[in-house]
Amino acid sequence: MKKRLSELLTFAVGDFYGEFHSRVFGALVENGRLPFRTLVAKSGLLPTQVRGALITLIQQSFVSFQTTDEGATNYDANWEKTYNFVIRSGKLLQLVKVRYGDAAGVVCEDLFEAGHARVGELIKERVSVKEKPASTKGGAVNGDGVNGVNGINGVHVNGVTEPEGHGPSPEQRRRALNKLVRAGLIVPLNERDMKSVEDLKRSAERNLIGTKYDHLPKTKKEKTNFALDTQQLLDGWRHESLRYFGDGEYSSIKRGNPFDEDSDDEYPAKRRKVHGRTNGVNAATGPHPETDLVVRLNFEKFDVLLRNQQLVKMAARYVGETTSKVYDALLRALETKTSRCYEPSLDHEAEDKEQPFVKTHDIVPYLDPNLDLNVGLYGEDVASEMNGHNDDDEEPVSRKRKQPSSDAQYKVEQHLRLLAYDPRQFVQSEGRDWRVPYRALTKRLLQSQIENHLTARYGTVAPRLIRVLFANGRLEDKNISKLALVPLKELREMLYVLQKAGFVESQEVPRDASRTVNRLVYLYFYDQIKARRVLLDDVYQAMARMLQRAETEKAKIQVVIDKSERTDVVGNEAKYLSKAEKVALERWNQTEEKLLRQVNRMDDLVAVVRDFYPMGPDDSNEELYG
Amino acid sequence: MSEKPAKTAAEAAALKAKWSAMYDKCVEAKPMGAYFSLEELMEFGVAMSDTELLAICEELVSCNLFAVAMAKGSLRYLTRGKELAIKITGLQTDTRVVYSHIEASGTNGMWKRSLCQKTNMHDNRVVKAIRELMAKKLIREIKSAKAQNRRIYILSHLDPSEENTGGNFFSDGAMDTGLIEALGEFILRHIETHSWAEQKVPAGHKARGVKRKRNADDVPASADIEDLPMFKVPLGPNKHPLVPFPPSHRDYPTVSTIMDLIDESGVLKDVTLQEHDVKQLLGKLEYEELVEQVPNLDGQPPGYRSTRRVWDRHPGTVDWNRPLDPADDGVGPGDGFTQVPCGRCPVFKACRPGGVVSPETCEYFEPWLKF
Ligand code: SF4
Q: pLDDT value at position A223?
C-alpha cells in the first residue's frame, strides 16, 4: 500500500475514532495482513484494546478478515472503503441531500456511521435526535463549507423540510430509503462485500484454479486469459449482489421492486411519466416488505454521480453554463443505466461502443423546470440556421409543432448538438438517441485535470510540453521544441523540472545499430498512469498535512474548546465565555473550515485522477506509443 | 572508353544536337538545379533507346551541364546553368568532387566531416577545396538549427532547408520568440473575434430577467452559491455573454483564411509565410489550449476557434514560468492542491509530522490561514 495514502488514512481514522483504532489500522496498513497475535504486538496495545478497535473497524469494513482452512484468522486493511468513509463521507452526504432531500441525507448518514444495517433499523424512528454542529466532529470532512448540515439548498428538491432539530419521521425515512435504493446508492449487503478488493481477487483466483484451470498460468497468453477470467468471475459476483431489480432472488415478489412503493423523485409529475407507470400507490403503512434485508452504501454508484458532476463542470468550462445543465439532465437520465464508471474487463473502445442510448424526451423530465433554455444558444439565428442549410437534423417536423414540450425538446437538442460538435465530443447522437462515450471522455477529463494542475503549479509551459508528448508519443527535445515552439534552453529547464517531479520520463535509445555512446538519442515521454500515481501521492500528502495542521491548531485552544463543550456552558456561552475565548473559538472554527474545505477539494481531484478511469497497465497508452 | 569505337564527325554532331536538345528540354521543364530520373528524361523523346540516353547523359555530365546524384535510391541527374558549368570546368579535380557532393546534398547542405567520409579524401584536401569554392562564391557556410556547432556547406544560391533553419521561426538556428509571440498573438486575436457569438437577448425574455441572470450569466453579488456560475462567463464587445455558434456554422478561420489575412495585413515585412509555418503556429496555440479545431460538417478542412476563455490569459504569455494565480477557485486554473501552501512548497518532499520540516511548525500556513 502506498505510504502517503496510509499516512493519510491512519491519521484520519485516529481523528474519527481515537488512538487505539488508529494504531490497529496503522499496523495493518504498514505490515499488510496479520494474524491477531502479531497485530497486538505491532500495535503495542493490549489484546482487549485491539479487539475493541477491531469490532468497529470490521463493522465499518475498514478491516476485513479471513479464516484459513487451518482455522487461523488474518486481518487486512481495506483502504478503498476506509477512504470513502473518513475522507469522502461529507461530500457524499451533501450530494445526497441536494439531490434526494434532507431525509435521505439522514438515512445515508446513519448508514455511514453503522457501516451496514437492516432496513428495519434504518427506517425506525430515532429517539434522540443527534444535534451535531457541523464542525465539532473531529476531522470529519463535511461537505463544502460550514452550512453542510442545513444544506446548501434541499429546498425545492422535495417537500420534506423538517423543523429544526427534529429528525425525519419513519415514513420520511422509508421514502428516502426507497429512493436511495432505486437510485442504486444503497444496495443489499453481500457477504463478499465485507472483503477487501485484493481478497476478493485472491478468492476468485483460487476458485478458478480449482475449476477451469489446473495449474497457475505460466505463459503470457495464459496469464492474460486468466486475468480476464478472474475479472469475469468478479463481475459475476458483483452482479449477484446488485441484481436486486433484475432476475435475481428478490424479484420473486410479483409486484416488482419492494422499494418501489412510491416514486416521488425529484420532479414528481414528470418522473412518473418517464417510467410510464401509473403509480398512485402512496407510501405503504405496514412494515417494510424487506425489513430484515441488510444494506450498505454503494460507492461504485456514488463514483458515477461524482463523475457526472465533473463532466458537467467540464461542459460548463468549455461550452457554457446552461448547456452544462442540459448535459446534467442527460447524464442523470443515463444514471439508471450506468452502475459503475467503467467495466474493468473491457478496453475503452469496446466499452464506448456499448454505452446505452437515451432519447431526447426522456431527458427533458430531468431538467430543472426553472432553467431558461434560450440562454447559451445563439438566439434568433437558431431557427433560420435550422431552416437553412442544416442537413443532418433528421426530423425538422418536430419544430413545427408548437407544443411547449416539443419546444423544450427542440431546445434541448440544440444544446446537445453543441456538446456533440464540441472538439471534446461530450455526447454522440444517432437521430434523437444520445449516448455518452464515457470512457474516452473520462480520459480527457482526467488529462485536463492533470494539465490544469501543472499549469497552476509550474506555469503555462509545463502543460504545453505535456500536451505535445501526450499527442505525439516519444520525442527528442529538439522535436518537442519545434512543436511547442519553446526555445530549447527553456524547454530543457522545464523538462528537467517535470522529470524530477515525476511527470515526464526519458529513455536512451541508440540512434542506429552501432550502439556507440555518442549515437544515443534521449527520448522524452509522458505516461498518464505514472503521472496519475505521482499526482495522487502528492495530494495524499497534502491532505494529511491539512488534517495534521488542523489538529495542531485545535490543540492550541483545546482548553477553550473543552470549556465551551461543558454541559453548563452549552447554551450559556454568552455568560461563561470571555470575549477573547469567543474570538479564539471563532477563529478556530474558521481555520478548521478552511482546512477541511481544501481537503474536500483535493478529494475532488483524487476522485477524477483515481476513481473514474482504470489505473492498471492493461489500459496503458498503447494508442500513443504503439 | 578506349574500347568504344571512335565517333565519326557526323555521329558527334548528331549527339551534340541531341544533348543540347535534351538540356533545353530539361531547363524548360523544371527550374535550374532540379532532379531528373532516367524515366523522365526518356519521356522527352530525345533519346531513342536506353543506350542512347545514357550516352547523352554522359556527354552532359562531362560538359558539367549535368551532375549525377542519388535520390530515393536511384540514379538522378540535375541540371546546371551554362555559366556555372564553365566555372566548374575550370576547377581542380578535388574541388570539383567536393562541389558535386555539396551540390548533391541539396538544401540540406553537407557537414565537413561527411564530406571527408564521402570523398574519401584527407581533411586538408577537403578544407582546401572548400576554401576555393568559398572564394569563388560557389558555396556558403550555414548554421543549422539541427546541430548548431557544425559547419554545414550548401550551394550559395540555395536557401537552407527547413530542417536546417527550423523554418521561418528561426534565425541563425535560434528560435525567434519575438516573431512567434507577435504572430501568435495576431492570429489568436483574429480567431477569438470569429469564434463565439455574442448572445442577443431575446425580447420575450426580458421580463424574466432575474431568472435569466441567475441561470447563467451575470453574477449578482448576493446570489446563492447554488446559482453562481461555475466559471466566469466570457463577454463580447457589447457586454453580452459569448455563446457557441451552432454546429452548422461554417465561418471559423482556417489555415488558408489565416494565411490570406496575414498576407493582406502586411504584418510581416521580409518573411514569406508558408502554409506549414501557419500550421506550426496554430499547433503551438493548440498545445497552449488557446485554440481548438472544430470539425467542418461539409468535409472541408477543420476551422479553428478560441478555447472558451474563462480566465484571463497573460498578455502575450511572455512570462512563461509564472504560475497563474490559483487563489480563485473556478475562475482560474488550479485545484484543491495548488491552492494550499503544500501545493507550492519548496520543501514538500522533506516534510513529515514531527520532522525538522513539519506541518506542526510550518510557517507557510500562518499567512495562508489569516482571515
Ligand atoms: S506543511 Fe508546510 S512544510 Fe509541509 S509540505 Fe505543507 S507547506 Fe510544506
A: 83
Q: What is the pLDDT of residue A572?
A: 79
Interface test with B, best of A549, A552, A592 (most B CBs within 10 A): A549
Give a three-class secondary structure readout of B318-370: CCCCCCCCCCCECCECCCCCCCCHHHHCCCHHHCCCCCCCCCCCCCCHHHHHC
Closest-CA distance, A297 to chain B, in angstroms, reads 26
Same fold, A2-83 and A457-530: yes
Q: Does residue A227 have a pLDDT over 80?
A: yes
Question: How many structural domains comprise chain B?
Answer: 3
Confidence of residue B238 (pLDDT cuts 50, 70, 90): confident
The domains of chain A are located at 2-83, 191-296, 300-338+356-435, 457-530
Q: What value does the mean pLDDT take over residues B337-351? A: 86
Q: What is the ipTM of this complex?
A: 0.79
Which residues in B lie closer than 8 A to residue A482 (C-beta atoms)?
166-167, 280
Q: Which residues pair with A294 in a beta bridge?
A: A118
The residue nearest atom 6 of ligand 1, judged by CA position, is B342
- Per-residue pLDDT reduced to its tens digit, A567-589: 888 877 788 888 888 888 888 99
* DSSP letter (8 states) at residue B234: P
Q: How far apart are CA A306 and CA A324, in angstroms?
A: 15
H-run or E-run covering B134: helix B123-135
Give tens-digit pLDDT for B8-60. Answer: 777 778 888 888 888 888 888 888 878 888 888 888 888 888 888 888 888 88
Partners of residue B203 in chain A, C-beta under 8 Å: none
* pTM score: 0.76
- If you measure from the C-alpha of residue A463 to the centroid of ligand 1, how many angstroms do you get, rounded to a whole number? 24
Q: Please, what is the Cα angle at B73 between B67 and B77, to 5 degrees?
A: 20
* Ligand 1 lined by B55 (C-beta under 6 Å): no
Domain boundary among B28, B62, B90: B90
Between A148-152, A234-238, A360-364, A600-604, the lowest mean confidence (pLDDT) is in: A148-152
- Do B81 and B148 lie in one domain? The reply is no
**Closest Cα to atom 1, ligand 1: which residue?**
B359
Least confident range from A200-209, A484-493, A495-504, A542-551: namely A200-209
pLDDT at B228: 63
CA distance B178 to chain A (A): 11
CA torsion sign for A309, A315, A317, A323 is negative
Nearest to B340 among A388, A463, A598 (CB): A598
**What's the CATH architecture for A457-530?**
Orthogonal Bundle (1.10)
Share of chain A above pLDDT 70, in %: 78
Tell me A611's DSSP state.
I
Instruction: Note the residue count of chain B.
Output: 371
The CA–CA distances, whole Å, from A496 to A465, A533, B221 equal: 12, 19, 44
Same domain, B303 and B189: yes
Same domain, B43 and B145: no
Nearest to B199 by CA among B231, B235, B225: B235
Q: Is residue B369 part of a domain?
A: no
Q: Which of B226, B248, B286 sits opposite A390 (nearest CB)?
A: B248
What is the A570 CA–ligand 1 centroid distance (Å)? 36
Name the pLDDT band for A396 (thresholds 50, 70, 90).
very low
Count chain A–chain B contacts defined by CB atoms under 8 A. 230
Architecture of domain A2-83: Orthogonal Bundle (1.10)
- Judged against a pLDDT cut of 70, whether residue B268 lies above it is answered with yes
Q: Is B345 in the pocket of ligand 1 (CB under 6 A)?
A: yes
Integer Cα distance of A125 and A127 in angstroms: 6
Parent domain of B34: 1-90
> Domain of B30: which CATH number?
1.10.10
Cβ-based neighbour number of residue A618 at 10 Å: 14
